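Interim report, section 4.2 (structural modelling).
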Amino acid sequence: MDITFRELTALDLQEGFLETLAGLAQVDLTPDEAREVFRARLRLGIHTYVAVAQDRIVGTLTLLAEQKFIHHGGLCGHIEDVSVHPEFKQHGIGSALVRHALEEARRLGCYKVILDCFENLVPFYQRLGFRSYNVGMRIDL
Amino acid sequence: MDITFRELTALDLQEGFLETLAGLAQVDLTPDEAREVFRARLRLGIHTYVAVAQDRIVGTLTLLAEQKFIHHGGLCGHIEDVSVHPEFKQHGIGSALVRHALEEARRLGCYKVILDCFENLVPFYQRLGFRSYNVGMRIDL
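Predicted structure of the assembly:
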């Protein structure tokens, strides 16, 4: 399957992007609300990448480049919200998206990329070069 | 000890802030570079909180509020770079900083706050209401 990767555009919001994301958690946004969220994310420098196959959005991944004071003002990449459209799973789209995000993180100048995942996904990310590093903690507000 | 909490200002960059952060990792920024990093962080909506005691900066913590598409465009708070000045450890400043960040995250409208920590700090964050949730992964670029 021929897959290409690029940044999300406003037009994509009506073309299967939200359906792809819905595999992850409830989205529940009107098209107007989704455009507003999209603009807010652009202002905050949040990169949303999409995988496109057969003219459809089949996967997505978020990359935040956090400007730190430590490490000589270095950038730390955070991968978030990796999701593949349910009809396109088991085609390596998730791996290819993460590899694309790592290339982009290098291009942006990140010195590391971090992410949190459930225990069952550790081998998946290890195959992509990540190592278990510490414990992900969470509090619901 | 009387401790107050507020957001970092540009003036603080010459008043012990970088020394407080240096407990965490190398900073190695000139004052001009630090101001540039500070401005970049403000543009990206990254909140830097400081704890002030005896007119000195004695602790710091970063809070990113990540605007998501999922959860009805909800905000996910990320706590990063918690550091207490070496001369002021064991005074509960770290706990108080995290509690302050949780209040701020609530005020900003975050539905959850996440962070990564080393295994030995899990009990510290559990006492503040966090639960171990998943695995923190990392790749160095």
